[in-house]
From TrEMBL:
InterPro entries: EmrB-like, MFS, MFS_dom, MFS_trans_sf. This is Transmembrane efflux protein. Keywords: Cell membrane, Membrane, Transmembrane, Transmembrane helix, Transport. Residues 1-39 are annotated as: Disordered. Residues 1-15 have a biased composition (Basic and acidic residues). Coiled coil: none annotated. It is a multi-pass membrane protein. It holds the Pfam family MFS_1. PANTHER family: COMD, MAJOR FACILITATOR SUPERFAMILY.
Length: 535
């Protein structure tokens, strides 16, 4: 019988089984520093601070580097390969994420996490010293490999240190790091590039990374993984097939509709390679002793549902982050200089609601209400954003953004919390990495699909309103910068504003439809009590 359908014992007994396995944290000896119900000791707070710094490094990097791109091209040249500076990092991060999670489960979380920090810092230093675009792309891939381990390591170590019932209190910290990265990234990147040069966009990672490295090395103490049945063997075949499959998927979503037409031979070949690799991966995982992603974790209804909800949250969030600043700059006349600040209503609401959700979850041990309410708010927020037109004020759009942000605040960290609560302790790494991977893939699909819909709609409206000139303007890209807009005749500029409004309407309406799937999944979540001391 599935443990999620079993009657729960009364009081605070910790005898639940989830997906056929004992709860991960409640039944595992905790660090001596973590007496249940006691305040967190200083050593744990130091570790958590170091983990937040590491998470900030991974999330902030692309935001900072994106601002420095024009300067980098001016110095190194290679404009035709510019997109690969971001793509190489994204590919390496996505492909390495599940591998880092599994290595942590097999050989111990601390050593694997420290290795990922060192690799990220090496990649950062080499990127700062790059002499041409090819070197920069290669070094960014090294940096991305380390970044994949940073994200997974943070989530898995928190899963090791903090019982699920107490873990909700730290949701606000993680949401705060995400909000800080999105708001401060463009500001910091622009300031560093202007005053110190683009190379410091990479060098700035070094002092922060060293602080995190030193704190984790000195203070973090975790038990060694129990491998009493002998030395575990790495699933090399599974790792290779999964890496090829993820790489193909990310390339399809990155190149489709931009570098190559969706129906082109290159895209079709990548789709075929991706599907074949993932089918082969599933075949291998059923037969190896230590699979890269144990398929039994998906037997838990809650874990599978959290994977779907996480995918959709990534789909919606990164689509919103892409199109909201574009709408505000093109239609509402906002400055592109402080583009991160344009998202403040959404990110502020996300942070506030995430903190409240975490506290309520810790105090009550209940969490199902948040995926349900979060999905509803996400649908409503996206539908409201789809109603914006050329006359919508910044205050009105800010309110709509806050509704969407509140919905995502209910979902962002709860998905990770419930996923980790649904597996055994020995699978904490793969649970964390799988949830992170689904969210990453969701963001890739969201940007690609919503972007394709946006571009098609903008081009159609420009052809209708501005004729041949409108078609020519948007034939290469449907996104025009502020300088290009300022040079346009008044009639053409108005046509483009209507086109952007139509494009965002279509993109956000699609997001609202997709978000309905998250609501359906949230309704079927089984509220298995979180283990650990209650508030």
């Amino acid at each position: 019988m599935d443990a999620e359908t079993m009657k729960e014992p009364s009081g605070r007994e910790a005898a639940d089984e989830v997906g056929g396995a004992r709860d991960s944290v409640a039944d595992v000896p905790q660090s001596p520093d973590l007496d249940e119900g006691a305040p967190q000791p200083r050593s744990v707070r130091v570790v958590l601070l170091a983990l937040m710094i590491a998470m900030l490094l991974a999330m902030l990097d692309n935001m900072i580097v994106g601002t420095a791109m024009p300067t980098i091209v001016g110095d190194l040249g290679g404009l035709e390969r510019l997109s690969w500076v971001v793509t190489a990092y994204t590919l390496a991060t996505a492909a390495s994420t599940p591998i880092w999670g599994k290595l942590g489960d097999l050989y111990g979380r601390k050593g694997v996490f420290l290795t990922s920090i060192v690799l990220f810092l090496i990649g950062s230093a080499l990127s700062g010293m790059a002499n041409d675009m090819d070197q920069l792309i290669a070094f960014r891939a090294v940096q991305g490999l380390g970044a994949g381990g940073l994200m997974v390591g943070v989530m898995a170590i928190i899963g090791d240190l903090i019982p699920p019932r107490e873990r909700g209190k730290y949701q606000g910290m993680m949401a705060g790091v995400m909000a800080l990265a999105m708001i401060a990234g463009p500001l910091v990147g622009g300031s560093i590039t202007d005053h110190w040069g683009w190379r410091w966009s990479f060098y700035i990672n070094l002092p922060l990374g060293v602080v995190a490295l030193a704190a984790v090395s000195a203070v973090l103490h975790l038990p060694k993984p129990d491998r009493s049945k002998g030395r575990a063997r790495i699933d090399y075949a599974g790792a290779a097939l999964l890496t090829v499959g993820i790489t193909a998927i990310v390339l399809v979503t990155t190149w489709g509709g931009s570098e190559y037409a969706w129906g082109s031979a290159v895209i079709m070949e990548l789709i075929a390679i991706g599907v074949a690799s993932l089918v082969g991966f599933l075949f291998v995982e059923k037969r190896v002793a230590e699979p890269m992603i144990p398929l039994h974790i998906f037997r838990s209804r809650n874990f599978s549902l959290m994977s779907v909800i996480g995918f959709i949250t990534g789909f919606v969030m990164f689509g919103a982050v892409l199109f909201l600043p574009l709408y505000q700059q093109s239609v509402q006349g906002a400055s592109a200089t402080n583009s991160g600040l344009l998202l403040l209503p959404m990110l502020g609401a996300m942070l506030a609601v995430s903190m409240v959700a975490g506290r309520v979850t810790t105090g009550s041990g209940r969490y199902k209400v948040f995926p349900v309410v979060g999905s509803v708010l996400m649908i409503v927020g996206l539908f409201l954003l789809a109603q914006m037109d050329t006359g919508t004020s910044r205050v009105t759009s800010g309110v709509y953004m806050a509704v969407l942000g509140a919905g995502m605040g209910c979902l962002m960290q709860i998905t990770m919390l419930v996923a980790q609560n649904s597996v055994e302790m020995k699978d904490m790494g793969v649970a964390s990495s799988s949830t992170t991977l689904f969210r990453t893939l969701g963001s890739s699909f969201g940007v690609a699909i919503m972007g394709a819909l946006f571009n098609d709609r903008v081009q159609d409206v420009m052809a209708e309103r501005a004729g041949e000139l409108g078609t020519k303007m948007t034939s290469q890209s449907a996104q025009l910068d502020a300088a290009s807009l300022a040079k346009l005749p008044e009639a053409v500029r108005e046509a483009y504003q209507h086109a952007v409004t139509a494009g965002t309407h279509s993109a956000f309406l699609l997001g609202a439809v997709v978000a309905v799937v998250a609501l359906v999944g949230a309704v079927f979540v089984k509220e298995v009590p979180l283990k650990g001391a209650g508030g």
